[in-house]
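Sanity check

After download, print the first record. It should look like this:
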Amino acid sequence: MFTGLVREVGRVEAVERSGEGAEIVVAAELARELEPGDSIAVDGVCLTAVDTAPSRFRVQAMAETLRRSTLGELAAGTRVNLEPALAVGDRLGGHIVQGHVDGVAEVVGCAAEGFARRVEVRPPARLLRYIVEKGSVALAGVSLTVAAVAESTFSVALIPETQERTTLGELAAGSRVNIEVDVLAKHVDRLVREYVHNLPAAGAGEAGR
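Expected structure tokens:
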């Protein structure tokens, strides 16, 4: 589990693709903290470190992961947001992020708003039901607060700190980003829909008398 607070921006050193997926080598200072088998979020995708060194680590991504996220677009030199897994007792400074990306969203526009930068994003339509104003959403592994919701898009505001310490400062119209909606919203939605589905139909009791 993660919190959406990026620890470091790493740089992809190599990507080796095969029919079964890809092996990705990332250069980062936090590699010295990792052991083989540890979880690490790369642009919001939970992966397992299979090999570590003081300044780099290697992860493997299945073909499905490459299809469902932006990891399939990675190349040597790409900058990626990194966050090690949350440890018991750590501060939950962002929100609960699983690292199970729900899809890829598209940036439709960016504009300065005071000292911040407002970014409008179009997520897959099926995810809009889970996005609410002032709720939480993770973009490229970064925990953000939803500033506004429109018919097919939503907006977030990036403060200078977020722009400087993550890759979100590089976003522009047309950029693609991994999106993970609030897992609590998904659970509530599932429970409510099942409850409503199992309610007796109106008038069914009278009809059976």
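If your output differs, re-run the checksum step. Summary of this record's structure: Residues 104 and 178 are 5 Å apart (CA to CA).
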